[in-house]
Each structure stands twice: as C-alpha cells, then as structure tokens.
Amino acid sequence: MTDLATAAINYARRGLPVFPLVPRTKRPACAHGKDDATTNVDQVSAWWEANPRCNIGLRPPRGYVVLDVDPRSGGTLDALGALPPTRTAATGGGGWHLWFRHDGRVRGRLAGTKGIDIKTGSGYLVVPPSIHPSGDRYRWIDETSAAPLPAHLLNAVTPPVAAIPSDLDWRNASGSCSGLVQTVATATEGNRNATLFWAACRAVEGGADPAVFVDLVQAAVSVGLTEVEAQRTVQSAMRKAAAA
C-alpha cells in the first residue's frame, strides 16, 4: 500500500471526507468530484487500489475553516497577524494551509489581504502527502489540533450581508446581461445560489441569449458552486420564470 493510500484511509477513519485526485494535480479523479468525498473506508480503499498514485482531496468538516495562503498570489503569513499554534500544512506550491475552528458563514477570500483564500466544506483541499505538479510534497508542519479562529480575523472571514440588486440594476446602458454575470461572479458564500437564481430569472424574463446562461453557470463555478449545482439552479429559475 502506498503512502498516499495509507494516508487517505487514515483521514477517512478520523472522520475526514476524502476523494481521489488525478496524480500530481488538483483535478478530481471520480465521477462527481468533491461531492463523492466520503469517510467510507471500503470506498476509499477501492479508489486507491484502482490507482495508488492518486493525490488526496479533502472537504473540511463543518465547524472548520482553512486559510489557504499562496505566496505566488501575494499571500503572506504576516498578513494574518499573531496566530496561536494550529494545524498547518505546507503546500506543494510553497504556501500554507492553516486550520481553525469556526462555525458560520464565510467569504471566499480573506478581506483586506492578497493571496489568502478561505476553504470550507463547500470546496476542498489537497492534503499531505499529495504531490504537487512541481514534484514537491504537501506535508504537515504542525499537527496540533485546530485552534479557534482568532478574534482579529473574524471580520475578515465573515461576508457582508449582500442584498440582491433591484430589477432596475441588472442591465448596463447597452442592454447587455453582463451585469447579471458580474453579480454572480462576485457573490459571497451563503448568497451564491440565491444570487444565481435571481440572475437566471432576470435573464429568462429579458429573453437573454442562451450563451448568457452558460456564462452565469461559469460565473457561479468561479465563486465555489459545482457545475452540477449551478446548472440545477439555472434550470430551476427557468422553470419558475416560465411558469410565471
């Protein structure tokens, strides 16, 4: 059994849902991507028996957030301020994943910083001992328990309350639907489905070109929804608008 297979099984036994990634990538190697993540040891074993070289994707359980610091995008540990000891991994790309306990709505990126994303169970992480495309390993550098999210980061993690734009706001001066797409592309976690649904309804009512709906789905995926989730929301909006 490879170290990757052993690690994946150990994560599952600890109640951490995992799924396989294409070797040396972040791309899912299973039919439904992160939605297939499981703690079922038999299923996890079967995946890594089929391909022992698969990287490991992990969905953080409810009650945890992971700050993904990427120096290549300008992220730094100093930008986080003073931190308590907490579970931390060094990524294969030269960054860090810092785990904290926090239960509540979060935004996709840490406010007021560059290069620091926020990961929750709505997405996934690549975890040790996965191998980065560069050949470097992800590795744990602090395996202590996750600390509570420091108070000074709470506002930077929590999204603002976003209001859905009024029906008069969504078209630009040329009558284009680009405003709808932009609204979806900037939606924060906790508002993404509602914003996409609203935008798709407005697009249907306005007789938008079919390409607009493709753009809406892509915008929703860019802020963290899966393609399946986004397509279902758009289809639901279409049915509602048609019935009305």
- Percent helix, as a range, is 25-40%
Give a count of the beta strands, DSSP E runs of length 2 or more.
Answer: 9
Strand content: 5-15%
Separation, N- and C-terminal Cα atoms? 57 Å
The outline comes out as globular
Query: What is the number of domains?
Result: 3
User: How do the SSEs run, as a string of H and E?
Assistant: HEHEEEEEEEEHHHHH
Please identify the oligomeric state: single chain
Report the total helices: 7
> What's the rounded overall pLDDT mean?
89
Tell me the structural class: alpha+beta
Largest sheet: 6 strands, mixed
Spans of at least 5 consecutive residues whose pLDDT stays below 50 are 166-175
Query: What is the CA-atom radius of gyration, in angstroms?
Result: 20 Å
Protein name: Bifunctional DNA primase/polymerase
Domain DNA primase/polymerase bifunctional N-terminal: 8-153
InterPro entries: DNA_primase/pol_bifunc_N, PriCT_1
Pfam family, one: PriCT_1
Describe this structure in words.
The protein has seven helices and nine strands, in the order αβαββββββββααααα. Residues 166-175 have low confidence and may be disordered. The strands form two sheets. Strands 3, 4, 5, 6, 8 and 9 form a six-stranded mixed sheet that branches. The protein has a three-stranded antiparallel sheet with strand order 1-2-7, with helices on one face. By secondary structure, the protein is of the alpha+beta class. A hairpin with a 5-residue loop joins β4 (88-90) and β5. The protein is globular. The chain starts with a helix and ends with a helix. It has helices at residues 3-13, 41-50, 154-157, 178-185, 192-205, 210-222, 227-243, and strands at 18-21, 55-58, 64-69, 88-90, 96-101, 116-119, 125-126, 139-142, 147-148. The chain has three domains: 1-59, no CATH class; 64-116 and 137-158, no CATH class; 178-243. α1 runs antiparallel to α2. This is Bifunctional DNA primase/polymerase. It holds the Pfam family PriCT_1. Residues 181-243 form the Primase C-terminal domain. InterPro entries: DNA_primase/pol_bifunc_N (IPR015330), PriCT_1 (IPR014820). Residues 8-153 form the DNA primase/polymerase bifunctional N-terminal domain.
